[in-house]
Specification:
alpha/beta; Aminopeptidase; OB fold (Dihydrolipoamide Acetyltransferase, E2P); 13-stranded mixed β-sheet; globular; binds zinc ion
Amino acid sequence: MKSIYESLVWNEVRITSHAASQYIPLKYGEVGTAGTRVTLIAGTHGDEGPWSALAIKMLCQHPVAQLRGRLRVIFTANALAAEVERRNSWIDSPNPIDLDGVFPGNKDGSHTDRLAATIAPLIADSDAVIDLHGGGTWCVNAFVKRFEGSEQLAADLGAPFISNAPNKRGGLTTYARSLGIKVANVEVGGRSSKEMYWTERNVQGLERALFNLGALALEAPPAPAKEAVDVGATEAVRARVGGIFVPTLREDAVGTIVPIDTEMGKILDLHTLAELQVFTAPYEQTAMMLLRPQICTIEGSALVYVIAQPV
Ligand SMILES: [Zn+2]
């Protein structure tokens, strides 16, 4: 029996980019014609893409006979950013453009504007959109952003933490929501020795979500999601100064709550290794939503943690 993946019909749109090669393709697969229209998209940020793309591909191993809706998959939304493992592509000038900040795009703009304008109709033609980000090359994370009217979808995705989504101007999810589409933003996983644990957890979350959307039939209903912890406003913690970052909390800490004053990590002077900044947990219960699990050199102002308090 054919799988969903084997049944995908591939489409290609050519988007103007390089002077030399003229265009970069955006490829997306579709299967099914009737029922709930679900779009799964990964890699709008190029450094966060492959983990989520793999989760979608693993979901697509279900027999196509189980599909009840129309599924559209975009594994790599921002190919030029993905090839250099960066959030944004290098091609737009004078400044890099965040693909997840220019929806619904501009077909006469630079490459990333045109890319958004190409993806926008694929989003608009959906009943539900799951926008998979994640940690990635430099961080791991463990939360889902919840949108009003799509609370069940956010819960089904099964992340340790759920936060209310801010209204990101030009965001893909903001655009989808403005059209009345059910939407969630997954920020789970990233490069670490546990990357397949989080990828498989995302697969289970997607199965649960598609089942409850009526888009996927399963022999038995999927196990309910583990109780997620609801958190309040999220806080981005940045480096005051550049230097060598040495994490105290490692990848096992993401998705957990640590007590106040827990040492999270520190920054050492690049030249003398003197201690320049120590990060400690500021709340009685500090939810570790995003962290850098590995030693690295960072610039001042670089994002190091995203934390919040349970509500
Ligand atoms: Zn992202």
